[in-house]
Design a protein that fits this description.
This protein is an alpha/beta fold and about 220 residues long. The chain is about 35% helix and about 20% strand. Strands 1-8-7-6-5-4-3-2 form an eight-stranded parallel beta sheet. β2 (about 30-35), α2 (about 50-55) and β3 form a beta-alpha-beta unit. α2 (about 50-55) runs parallel beside α3 (about 70-80) and α3 packs parallel to α4. Bound molecules: D-xylitol-5-phosphate and zinc ion. Belongs to the ribulose-phosphate 3-epimerase family.
Length: about 220
């Protein structure tokens, strides 16, 4: 079954806790939290203190997507704030293996993200140590962009390689997922879809999530 992770980037930030509660009741599997530092990506969102204050609104896993230049420096902060899955970019300035090890040492699940211009094989050396790989289907930084279907062959490559070394690995895609695109992601072997606009701009988040899941068969 396809898991759906609503991206809080598209929520009403003045009532972020209630938005998380609403997503919980609407059938979200994970809460996707986009952390941007205005340096790694040209946008700024929120950090660990904000995540900590909204942690109490759901028991569902917090899937924290770090779009920051030096993730290693802040792993402990995000772990203490209540992140469950901590996903960082391979293109960041931190040492990849050291950052994975740090996430694990904090008792959290490590995820590695690749931007559209990064090849699938870059993540191969780390697959055995990862909980998840996130393949960006837009350039990171903003919600509401168009899905890049040409990223899907990377999902297939990663799935094939992971089947040899870590069959439990989850593959997530992020950006432009909606009713018109989710089936392609499912067919490529994606396990988790992030969806911002498609869920938050819908009249009913419950219906939106149900519809997205129903398309995955
Ligand atoms: C983009 C973020 C995404 C974004 C997705 O940098 O990582 O999580 O919010 O938004 P939609 O689903 O609207 O493309
Ligand atoms: Zn994201």
């Amino acid at each position: 079954m396809m898991l759906i992770a609503p991206s809080l980037l598209s929520c009403d930030f003045s009532v972020m806790g209630e938005e998380i509660e609403r997503m919980d009741k609407s059938g979200a599997d994970y809460m996707h939290l986009d952390v941007m530092d205005g340096h790694f990506v040209p946008n700024i969102t929120f950090g660990a203190p904000v995540i900590k204050t909204v942690r109490k609104y759901t028991e569902k896993p917090f899937d924290v997507h770090l779009m920051i230049s030096e993730p290693l420096k802040y792993i402990e902060d995000f772990a203490n704030a209540g992140a469950d899955i901590i996903t960082f970019h391979i293109e960041s300035d931190s040492d990849v293996q050291e950052t994975i090890d740090k996430i694990k040492a904090c008792g959290k699940k490590p995820g590695l993200v690749i931007k559209p211009n990064t090849k699938a094989e870059e993540v191969f050396p780390y697959l055995k140590d990862l909980f998840m790989v996130l393949v960006m289907t837009v350039e990171p930084g903003f919600g509401g962009q168009s899905f890049m279907a040409d990223m899907l062959p990377k999902v297939k490559e990663i799935r094939e390689e992971a089947n040899k070394v870590n069959p439990e690995l989850l593959i997530e895609v992020d950006g432009g997922i909606g009713e018109a695109t989710i089936k392609q992601a499912y067919d490529a072997g994606v396990d988790v879809c992030v969806a911002g606009t498609a869920v938050f701009k819908a009249d009913s988040a419950t219906e939106a999530i149900n519809n997205l899941k129903a398309l995955c068969k």
